[in-house]
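Problem 12. The chain below contains 133 residues. Write out its predicted structure in token notation.
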Amino acid sequence: MVDKLQSETYVYDAGVLVAIDKSRDDVLRRHETRLAGGDRIIVPAPAAAQVVRDPRRQARLMLALRTCDVVPFGADDVAPVGRLLAGAGTADVIDGFVALTAAQFGSAVVTSDGDDIRHLLKTLGVRLAVFAP
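Solution.
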């Protein structure tokens, strides 16, 4: 077994949160392993908003979100996301914000939209790891 020398940072998209909410044990185990290893998990707020419907009935999801840094989408993000989408020829604002957040933090992305995220990262001129949930 190799000791982990430094923690990693991951950005989650809505697909990861859906998988946690749907009780996919494999995804939840990977999330818990990341946390146990001291990794930082970032969730763009719009990605969380896509999934949260009734927090009282989504205990697993809400508990997982408590272990993440949820980053807001603010007025300062509007133009950079819009420019990225225009440059990439795409329209998904949340994917755009996920890609920009990952680029900002130099983070790997865990996503159910791997091809779209890779395209956006390439448009940004950034090479980051992209993993399926």
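Discussion. The longest strand covers residues 40-44. Students who got a different answer should revisit the alignment rule from Section 12.3.
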